[in-house]
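One such shown below:

_____
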Amino acid sequence: MAKLKNNQTDNIDFLNPYTFVPFQKVPPKPEAWEQKYSSPEDLLTGWLDIELIPKTPIIIPDTAHREEIKVKNKKGADTVHNKYPFLRLPDTDGVPGIPGGSLRGMLRSVYETLTGSCVSSLMDERPISQRNPLYAGFDKRGLLHYDLATDTWTLHRAVVYRQKCGKRQVECGKYKGFCTGEKVYFTYDQHRLLNIGRTVQDVSGKNDISFSYDVGWLQFNIPIQQDYSVTVLQPGSVVHTWKGEEYSPDRKLLSALSRDGVVDNSSESPKPMKDLKNKLMEAKNGGDNYVPVYYLTFENKRGTEVYLSGSSIGRVGRNRKWKEIMGSYAPCEKIDFLCPACLLFGTKADGGVRGRLRFTDAVPMNPEKIKSELHTLQILSTPRPSSFEFYLNKPAADAAYWNFDYYSVTVYEDGKGHPEFYPVETMMPRGRKYYWHHREAAEDAVIRSNQNATMEAVSGENFKFRMYFDGIQPQQLSDMIWTITFGENSADSTRLHKIGHAKPLGYGSVKLLITNGAIRKVKKTKTGLSAELVPLNIDVNKAGGTNCGITMGESGISLNAELKADESRKKIMNNILKICDADVSENLNIRYPVKVTKKGEEEIFEWFSKNRNVNKHHISPDTLPNPTDKKLTLRGTVLSSDSAQGKKNADSTDGEGKYADKANQGNKMGESRKVKAVVLRINAKGNCRLKLQGKESEGQFNTRGKSYSSGSEIDVYITGYSDKYDVYWVKPLE
């Protein structure tokens, strides 16, 4: 990748694409399925017609019809870029559609939040693991030993003998072939290693039975820069034992290693970590060996807690499972103790109970008006709960690092900082994850690679679907109506849902509008039972108010979730309404955190690295603002307009996304490079489009968080031109 000299950077205020609605302090009391629906005469059956209005393009990828495109990676090797069409529903002649399951999932997520229900889907039940940052690394070394006869693991404090050596000595010198956890013979002087060998003769250099030596187990560190630290450990006093436990130390360590791709060899992990995996498995199978580890211990209400890692700043397995962490919000397990969402949408737990809602697929109202476009998306990654400053509440004002089990505070003595660790008695995720709404979807990626994908997105026409409800309580219907409309049953409402793929990039913002509905009334007659449909009174122009514009037939009963909202629910509703309102984030620069590296790269990792670089002046990382905070943004840095454009030119090496900077060509630029311009629009990433005086093509620059009003006139300086996008790159003259 090309490097640029003299990079200029700008500070920006950005809104992270996602945020969290906090959990209610006390969830509602679980109810039994039979008890909830024990009075049939009070239950409602009927349907709602719902219109889905796209505000930004929607992506529902058809993964069964993926197309592989051959591309080159950064090293010039062949790789595959995936391309996905939009999902087409069966028997629709190829018309794009949205599955009822996607609609159901979207609405269940909001209903769970509104009603304080369980989190119906948790991460897998492997032991949770998280990497320690450099400033909160473990400094105690130990040796694990397994006794197959008694099924007991024992952690010993290690007696440590160190020797620093160069990387070449380990990889191709005198220590080549040695591995972490290997039994060795050694000599030492004041805990400093002198020589190491596999046999006595290797150490002494001669066949001398009287030669004085010691036995220990080898440990290499993972080299962060140039030098390895070669260490030999001997078992000392016992720190802790585990006997026949499900959550045994080897399982936690192997799970942590698997997260780094060590167990299945799916990553280029450093050799010491692969050695550690092998020695753990040897010990579990009865091998008479010790496994070198780093550890941390402290006492809390659960007794002695022990945490293990393969390196000082390696990944650490946690002691609590997701079910324990989530507490009352863990998925329901018994049909006699169900949360509001499981009572309404159903659950597979305890043999399963059926849901009382059914959703049809959403189809276009006028298929011929559907607009379809292919977009090469920017790189998206899986959720990272290890980003503790975003996913977890800070346990203390001076906490430098924290996780579900403990936190650290950096203490300074004689000018040097070291971590002190404290237990966390209870820690949950910050809440349920939601995405902010963009004014428009993010710009396409320039380069196609195996890390991103090209997907078909649709827009330009509304969809329609129907929700059937069968034997539900009036309050449940009220809550569902609020869940669908967010309290505003109006087509021009800015209270929107998110559906489909690429939500962080601004895709999938939709407005749901209830257009029709009815309730089936069953009456006893002389000849038996008769049923009639009572239409709901619906005002599609109602924006807000006390009943969303919907009442239940002639009775005039208001279907309004807010009427029975206590203070806890009102707080949750306020958080939801803040996030779902597109006006809140309209003029904010929505993007993932970013800082410019020394190499002139805009990197997410660099932002988190700098944020966690605690010192006397920055004692604790910045955390993600709450949805109802006055200030929603964080601070980052990006390349200035000129540097960023130059970088695009330098990085583009193929015909795909190649930029042509023709700043010195008069045939397109013209003689005058200082012109007046009128602001046309600003997208969600802060890119401002301009009408340039005397130019046919538009101009563009990034606002870097500064405010510009549409229609305002500014002076700009033209710095370049792109053939591919037919746009001038400009810089405002302040």
Q: What stands out?
A: The two ends are 33 Å apart (CA to CA). The longest strand covers residues 227-243. The chain has a mean pLDDT of 82.
